[in-house]
Hints:
The protein has 13 helices and 10 strands. It has about 375 residues and is an alpha+beta fold.
Amino acid sequence: MKDILQHFAIANEVAEPEPLKIGIINDSYVVRAKKSGEKSYFLQRINHHIFQNVEGLQQNIYKVTNHIRQKLEAAGEKDIARKVLELVPTGEGKLYYQTPQGDYWRVYVLIENAFSQEKLTPASAELTGEAFGRFQCQLADLPFDALCESIPNFHNIEFRLQQLDEAIRDIQSAKADRRERLEACKDLLEAINSRREEMCLAERLFREGKLPKHINHCDTKVNNILFDEEGKPICIVDLDTVMPGFVLSDFGDFMRSAANTGKEDDRDLDAIHVDLEIFEAYTRGYLKEAAFLTDIEKELLPYGCRLLSYMQTVRFFTDWLNGDTYYKIQYPEHNLVRTKAQWRLFEEQEKAEEEMKAIIKRLS
Ligand code: GN1
Ligand code: MG
């Protein structure tokens, strides 16, 4: 792996990359400086089966990080290197390196003493809400066409449902030999289908010109923000999916991961409930910063929570029916377990809808 690092503009001496278990898409490694006080790095193999336009992906990240850096500089912020990611170019000035075998690699400067968390306290959730609100504001003046969709239709639920339908058709037409996977999930499929129309509301409102798109992060899982030792958010990471979308995506995806008393892949479905304390704290912080929100966007925030859990259910379920080709799995039925856990969260969010609405009303 040292061979790969040689291609990047890294001047100091570094140790052998150590694998990190984060994310379920790319492969990540930390590369420590040999001398203390020198820069360490974060090396990633980009999953190019998923990100098929690596050039566009890397350009997006470069534009977004530069834009944020300029905003931080203009605001006179200190310690900017800890507040925004920095890509390390290759010796030839490219934003990634492609091996002769066709793999793609990229390097960031490592942000030291920064940690991701799976569970937040209400106090840190409020600060995190502010951080994501600020992030959206910082990107609000970036023209839409400045960024490409690094994964086309990424958070378009109509498209995700089409993919589910295709997976089912493949099984029914015997093109795919996974009938038992489908047979075992008939009730779940029926339940998913009964919410289809409602869940496509955002896309309809967009077509009618009633719901705007903004530049979003599109993967605001709680572990995609780094905190300092005191638990204060410092930097938003995992910028692979920054692209135009509904603010509902970022609000909903955060709640899907952080305002859930259980885990994304909990086998114990009874452990899964909406954590309204976290919901309220994050919302308070977010609304403080996201001054650009229109009334309809604010009103739809609880719907956004359900939408993202619904979308994640559909995506995990599709991958299960397709024979686990997209997400990394740790055991054979992992995608099925994830599907059921996300569906339970969706049902819990349905139950908590009125309470969530009341909180938003109170905080607006
Ligand atoms: C993936 O990058 P990572 O592993 O944090 C996925 C997200 C899903 C998430 C579910 C490019 O995120 O959309 O919400 O898994 N990213 C991509 O855990 O598909
Ligand atoms: Mg990601």
